[in-house]
Amino acid sequence: MPWWENGSLSAALLILLVIGSSFASDKWIPNAQLSLPLLIATLLAFLTAAVGIPRLRALKMGQVIREEGPQGHRNKAGTPTMGGLLIVPVGTIIGSLVSVSGSAGQQLLAIATVTLAYMVIGGFDDWQSLTKQTNTGLTPRGKLLLQALAAVLFLAVAAWQGWISDQVSLPFGISLSLGLMIWPLGLFVFLAESNATNLTDGLDGLASGCGALVFAGMAIQLMLRGHSGDPAIAGFCMAMAGAWLGFLMHNRNPARAFMGDTGSLAMGAALSAVALLSDSLWPLLLMGGVFLAESLSVIVQVWVFKATKDVDGQGRRVFRMAPLHHHFELGGTSERTVVPCFWLATLGMVILGLVLRPIG
């Protein structure tokens, strides 16, 4: 077996990479203090999951596996899910404590609140799935409406407080003025990002590893931007990265627990809120490239299938299966290789986002 297919080893390398990047940022970027929230959140998330996962198992909160999914996933049935309940509060509480006063403290509280709201929506969806013993919980329309409601409330508070600029900063000193279009764009970002992270959560350690890398990248780019960045939100991002690193120790292959929609929707909501309040939509677009690719693979698959569907109800498929990670699995690449490759792709996109970060 190649070394990268050892889940413990590949996860350890990713964790060391994120922690090393944080130490390097604190050493060489002026005023950076990213390591403390990262280390505290990582330790607490690991311990919370270690204590909580046996409780989830005792409560028989085992994952229901899709009938139409890859056959190799059948042996994952019964693995405890809803791990987000254990992890998301750790990240949001530690992140909120980075700054507790003034406008920065209020912004962190708003980010934490919308993150927890999406965790509750995901938890309700997971619970419906468990009680009905199917892979689907809430109806897609019902879930989307709840996500939109939470996002609109967050955007309303942000508009009231004047926290979101209508200027979107791009590389090379370029900025794009959107005027009132920033608000529908903000709603779209919440819905698209949270569902993209949700679709990515399909293999052991995939979403938690990618999420930790993107949160760390968002924190570092904010510190590199100096006075146009936001140190408090950067600290919040590192706390969230630490929470996912702590969970990754349990979620890496073979997973002892899954985050469920409880965790994946909250991950996307936190990234959206951070990007909107810190003028980091462009860095999120680049760094979250794997999330975007996963989401686009589903859209393309469904669109082409419906457009080519014949009288027998059969249509063409672009991918063997969507989301994209299943396409590679069904092509013969093992899950233990697909996940590190997606982590590497995310790392590459994070580096690209750092190089092409907004300046000024």
Helical coverage, percent range: 55-70%
Average of the residue pLDDT scores: 94
Strand content: under 5%
Shape: globular
- The overall strand count is 2
Q: Low-confidence parts, pLDDT < 50 over ≥5 residues?
A: none
For the record, give the distance between the C-alpha atoms at the N and C termini, rounded to a whole number: 48 Å
Question: In terms of structural class, how would the helical and strand content be classed?
Answer: mainly alpha
- Enumerate the strands of the largest sheet in spatial order, edge to edge or round the barrel: 1-2
| SSE run | HHHHHEEHHHHHHHH
Radius of gyration, in angstroms, nearest whole number: 19 Å
Number of helices: 13
What does this entry look like structurally?
The structure is a single chain. The protein has 360 residues and is mostly helical. Helices cover 68% and strands 2% of the residues. It contains 13 helices and two strands, in the order αααααββαααααααα. It has helices at residues 7-28, 35-58, 84-96, 102-132, 140-161, 182-200, 206-224, 231-251, 260-277, 281-287, 289-307, 324-330, 335-355; strands at 167-169, 175-177. Helix 1 runs parallel beside helix 7, helix 2 (35-58) packs parallel to helix 8 and helix 7 (206-224) runs antiparallel to helix 8 (231-251). The N and C termini lie far apart (48 Å).
